[in-house]
Amino acid sequence: MRRARARRNLPEIELTPLVDVLFMLIIFFVLTAVFSEPLLPVNLPGATGERVSGKSFTVSIDREGGLFSGDRALTREQAIERTLASFREGKRIIVAADREVPYGFVVSFLDALRSAGVDSAGLLVDPGVER
Predict the structure, then answer these.
(1) Distance of CA 98 to the CA centre of its chain
(2) CA 38, CA 117: separation in Å to the nearest integer?
């Protein structure tokens, strides 16, 4: 007599938890990419400009004249040292100054950068603000 062979069912993989995990990872990476370089709330002056691509280093100047890299406060000397180091690494230098900062303060900071060896720095503007 032949014995009936029991059919083995292959184990099935539930895809729902895998899709949930994948979705959470996508959300995590999108949010970390958006918030990777926090900027201070600086009211930028209005002007026309062009987008710059590539790696950059941003120095923010708030309305009281404080210098920041991201959300970290810097002294003038620290800001110049970090900016020079980033410039030597090939990063573009961007200065994001609040529109209420005195013009002379921004010019003196840019002059100090040029004296330290940074021969090219851009100013961050907001094209949506009226001039």
Answers:
(1) 17
(2) 26
Per-residue pLDDT tens for 2-25?
666 667 787 888 888 889 999 999
Q: pTM score, two decimals?
A: 0.60
What are the extents of the domains in the chain?
56-123
pLDDT for 74-121, tens place per residue? 888 999 999 999 999 988 888 888 888 888 888 899 999 999 998 888
pLDDT at 38 over 80: no
Going by C-alpha positions, the residue among 38, 126, 55 that lies closest to residue 93 is: 55
Q: Are 91 and 102 in contact (CB under 8 A)?
A: no
- Whether the CB-CB separation of 62 and 97 falls below 8 Å is answered with no
- The structure tokens listed for 88 are 């030597």
> Apex CA 80: angle with CA 79 and CA 83, to 5°?
85
Closest CA to 112 of 67, 66, 72, 76: 76
Give me the residue label for tokens 């026309």.
48
User: Please, which residues bridge with residue 46 across strands?
Assistant: 126
CATH number 3.30.420.270 given to 56-123 = yes
